[in-house]
Amino acid sequence: MELIEVTLSTIPGMVFALCAVAVLIAGFMRGFVGFGAAMILIMTLSLILGPRAAVAISSLSGVVLVIQLLPDTIRTSEKPFVVPFGLASFIAAPFGTLVLVSLDPAIMKMAISIFVLFMVLMMWRGWRIGGGRIAIIGTGLAAGFAQGTAGVGGPPAVALALARSGTTVQQRGNVLGTVAALAFCSIPPLWYHGLFTADVVIFSALVLPLYVFGTWLGQRFFSQKGQHIYRMAALWVLAITGAATLVVAVSDFTS
Predict the structure, then answer these.
(1) What is the pLDDT of residue 2?
(2) Which residue has the higher pLDDT, 96 or 47?
(3) Distance CA 218, CA 226 (A)
(4) Could you say which of 21, 123, 160, 234 has the lowest number of CB atoms within 10 Å?
(5) Distance (Å, rounded) from C-alpha 173 to C-alpha 34?
(6) Calpha distance 161→228 (Å, rounded)
(7) 71-74: long-range contacts at Cβ-Cβ below 8 A with a sequence spacing of 24 or more?
(8) Closest Cα partner for 108 from 246, 254, 255?
(9) Mean pLDDT, range 108-112, rounded to an integer
(10) pLDDT top residue among 128 and 218
(11) Quick check: helix, strand or coil at residue 176?
(12) Which is more confident, 185 or 170?
């Protein structure tokens, strides 16, 4: 069984255009609310390119953007929080990737959509996770496994970071730190399992400018008029996308 289901030569122009739109929207979400980009990108790309290619492309694109924020992350994050979380996520990510490459792609498409919908519900209900050492390590393990399996370990990490006391600058730094850890922890196991094919790397490079541009647009929208509606708008977009992709995935699985 091929780990990557498609190649660039087999992607029609219209399908590539749909992928580009998904990347642009994901970038906008990243700039607008700071999370949700991977969820949108992986949910949509998994239907078009397959879940393994989607996770690999999202991981490569995400790392580039994370590197840009590393100086700010190192300066503002709380090391006693980010370091144990990061170590736990690095331990768990390979086990998640093993699930990704072992399960049937059709099942993974449905699993990704269901998991994302659960994460949306978690954020919608305002669930918070305690900030003790056990909670940090446990959440790091869960987020790392989710990142390796479906590339969407961000929501529990963000929930944990925002549950901590401290200034807004510290909370933002902790969010950036957990997101950075998740971005990097998935790279070694994905590379080990051969998911970074030439087609995946080329595709990631082609859509990266759109990702960056979408992020810039989202930042501008937030600074101008989006502060009061951003959370509800983000959750609605994620919920609708998750439900739609789940319907399509179930239809493909049963057909």
Answers:
(1) 47
(2) 96
(3) 9
(4) 21
(5) 12
(6) 21
(7) 72/173, 72/176, 73/173, 73/176, 73/177, 73/180
(8) 246
(9) 74
(10) 218
(11) helix
(12) 185
Q: What is the average pLDDT across 71-80?
A: 88
Numbers of helices and strands, H then E, in the chain: 12, 0
- The alpha carbon dihedral of 100, 103, 108, 110 has a sign of negative
How far is 53 from 105, CA to CA, in rounded Å? 10
How big is the chain, counted in residues? 255
Going by pLDDT thresholds of 50, 70 and 90, the confidence category of residue 132 is: confident
Q: Which residues of 36-66 are buried (b: 16+ CB within 10 A; e: fewer)?
A: bbbbbbbbbbbbbbbbbbbbbbbbbbbeebb
Cβ neighbour number for residue 15 with a 10 Å cutoff: 13
If we measure between CA atoms, which residue out of 24, 65, 17 comes closest to residue 211? 24
Q: Quick one: tokens of 104?
A: 């049937």
Judge residue 160's burial from the number of C-beta atoms within 10 Å of its C-beta, 0-12 exposed, 13-18 middle, 19 or more buried: buried
Contact 43, 239 (CB under 8 A): no
Residue 226, pLDDT score: 61
